[in-house]
Design goal:
Blueprint: H1 3-11, E1 26-30, H2 31-48, E2 51-52, H3 62-71, E3 77-79, H4 82-90, E4 96-98, H5 105-117, E5 121-125, H6 128-137, E6 145-150, H7 163-174, E7 179-186, H8 197-220, E8 227-230, H9 236-242, E9 247-248, H10 258-261, E10 277-285, E11 291-294, E12 309-312, E13 319-322, E14 328-331, E15 344-348, H11 352-356, E16 361-366, E17 369-375
Parallel strand pairs: 1-16, 2-9, 3-4, 4-5, 5-6, 6-7, 7-8, 8-9
Antiparallel strand pairs: 1-10, 10-11, 10-15, 11-14, 12-15, 13-14, 16-17
Length: 383
């Protein structure tokens, strides 16, 4: 959102009916749906006796993180990159877990500074060299750095690949004065978006069995393993009930997106979370029959998943297609030749995490009013 557009939209905060006057395109959060999603996940965690460590890569927002804390059952947050963690820490968010190994002189220096700034910081390790790097960097720290052994549970992105390697690495971590072994992480990203509940449940049960075996091996070896962390929005319903994970790294549930809405998350086809994240766009040209041009193109939506879903503002059956960097094309169903210039169309984000990363602010609306505009502090934090 450029400064002029932001200034206009900020003037609409608290104005009755202000949402309909928003300058577009805009990344919009439906607060009623958002708050219902937070309450639903917190209630699930409470009922199952498991904690939440939401993944901030989804929202990259201090305000969203605070709202998640207020909803309950949240013990901290996950961040994929140091930059995301630094942005949250500057906003007063604590209890951060970096879910990928931190390596290299520059990043270890930043990690040490972050450790000093936070009450609680966790990292993951997958090999002895990284353990030794961390141990050297934190040898003089005022308190040990909390460390989890990351396990490859099938995604092959990071992690030890056997029970024996996990125990050996755990022993090495536990032997370092500057480090404190706290448990294990296993994130099965490859199965989160499997459409079938049964297929996803079978896959996540195998992940739970693998992690339970490593947890038990740690304990048999005299190694602490109070934390088993992982899971995600797609598998939370199964993971939360099996008693292996102590915390769930759920990410997309506050917002949801087209990709997740296509998944059966409950096993009975009911939707446990509502779409809350939208791109609002307006018709800017209607000179051709059968479609109109809008002001939201590929710079507004992530392109790595399905197309945005038209939720409101166009006839049922309308579909969205990219029409260049800056513009979109709404294909209208038969019998509908056009829409008036200025028509507001609401599109559900196709993949929420990278879509959010394209924007500087979230416009928080409730009903027909603009309640607030929230900065996305971690936007663009790729290092």
């Amino acid at each position: 959102m450029n400064p002029e557009s932001l200034a206009w939209n900020e003037r609409l905060v608290g104005v009755p009916g202000g949402a309909a006057r928003l300058d577009t395109p805009a990344l919009v959060l439906d607060l009623d749906a958002f708050e219902a999603n937070l309450a639903q996940m917190a209630a699930f965690a409470r009922a199952q006796g498991v904690k939440l460590r939401p993944h901030a890569k989804t929202h990259k927002s201090v305000t969203v993180a605070r709202r998640q804390l207020e909803a309950g059952e949240v013990v901290g947050f996950c961040c994929a990159k140091l930059g995301e963690a630094e942005a949250l820490a500057r906003g007063g968010i604590d209890g951060i877990l970096l879910t990928a190994p931190v390596r290299g002189e520059s990043k270890l220096g930043r990690l040490l500074a972050l450790h000093r700034a936070l009450r609680e910081l966790f990292v993951v390790v997958e090999d002895p060299e990284n353990v030794r790097e961390l141990a050297a960097a934190f040898a003089g720290a005022d308190r040990p750095l909390a460390v989890l052994v990351v396990v490859d549970v099938g995604s092959h992105r990071f992690g030890v690949t056997s029970l024996e390697a996990a125990v050996e690495l755990g022993r090495l971590v536990a032997a370092q004065p500057g480090l404190e072994l706290r448990g294990i992480q296993g994130y099965a990203g490859r199965i989160q978006h499997l459409r079938s509940y049964e297929e996803r449940a079978a896959a996540t049960r195998a992940v739970n069995a693998q992690l339970a075996a490593i947890r038990d091996a740690f304990r048999a070896a005299g190694l602490p393993c109070p934390i088993v962390t992982g899971s995600g929005t797609g598998t939370h319903d199964v993971d939360g009930r099996l008693g292996v994970f102590t915390e769930l790294q759920v990410g997309s549930y506050p917002f949801m997106d087209v990709d997740y809405l296509a998944c059966d998350l409950t096993g009975d086809g009911t939707a446990c979370f509502r779409p809350a994240l939208f791109v609002w766009t307006r018709v800017v040209s209607n000179r051709h029959r059968g479609f109109v041009t809008t002001d939201a193109g590929s710079k507004c939506f992530a392109m790595d998943g399905p197309a945005p879903l038209v939720a409101a503002g166009a006839p049922p059956g309308s579909t969205y297609a990219m029409f260049g960097d800056q513009f979109g094309r709404i294909e209208l169903p038969p019998g509908h030749d056009g829409l008036p210039i200025g028509t507001l169309v609401r599109c559900i984000a196709p993949h929420c995490d990278p879509t959010v990363n394209l924007w500087d602010h979230l416009v928080a609306v409730r009903g027909d009013g603009v309640e607030a505009i929230w900065p996305i502090e971690g936007r663009g934090a790729v290092a």
